[in-house]
Design brief:
By secondary structure, the chain is an alpha/beta fold. The chain has a domain at 2-76 and 115-130: Rossmann fold. It is built from seven helices and five strands; from the N terminus they run E-H-H-E-H-H-E-H-H-E-H-E. It has helices spanning 7-14, 21-33, 42-56, 58-68, 79-92, 99-110, 122-125, and strands spanning 2-5, 37-41, 72-75, 115-117, 129-130. The chain has a five-stranded parallel sheet. Helix 1 packs across helix 2 and helix 5 (79-92) crosses helix 6. The longest helix is centred in the middle third of the chain and has 15 residues, at 42-56. It is globular, with a radius of gyration of 14 Å.
């Protein structure tokens, strides 16, 4: 099983005071027990680093880099993927979603990944299956 991991899952996973921390921890444990291939993009990592640094500080960044990042299969956004994400963003003509979101959707479609570990409803709206705690 291959699962895409979004920034919206990383923050509650690492932030014990987040309302979704318990659910994130259960989903993470389940994905690890299933030996799921955990994928994300370098754009998701960049967004996650910025968010974690801003909200939780450098210790969170260190923990993320040492304990989480090595478990991820990182898909690098090249020029073609970047342009596809920009095109999707401009086609949508609304500002709710970011370029990171659209590149994530493009990567998931190209790699035939249908399940995502995320707490943003946007993935479900795009037709992806969102992993839930049992």
């Amino acid at each position: 099983m291959r699962v895409f991991v979004d920034t919206s899952a990383f923050l509650p996973l690492l932030n014990r005071s987040d309302e979704d921390h318990e659910a994130a921890s259960l989903i993470w444990a389940w994905l690890r027990s299933e030996r799921a291939t955990l994928s994300c993009t370098n754009y998701v990592l960049l967004e996650s680093f910025a968010l974690l640094q801003n909200r939780l500080g450098m210790e969170a960044i260190k923990g993320f880099q040492e304990k989480i990042v090595p478990l991820l299969q990182v898909e690098w956004i090249d020029l073609s993927l970047h342009q596809s994400g920009v095109a999707a963003l401009l086609l949508a003509k609304q500002g709710r979603l970011s370029l990171v979101d659209y590149t994530s959707f493009v990567v998931m479609q190209r790699l035939d990944i249908d399940t995502v570990f995320a707490f943003d409803q946007y993935f479900a709206e795009q037709g992806f299956t969102v992993a839930r705690a049992s």
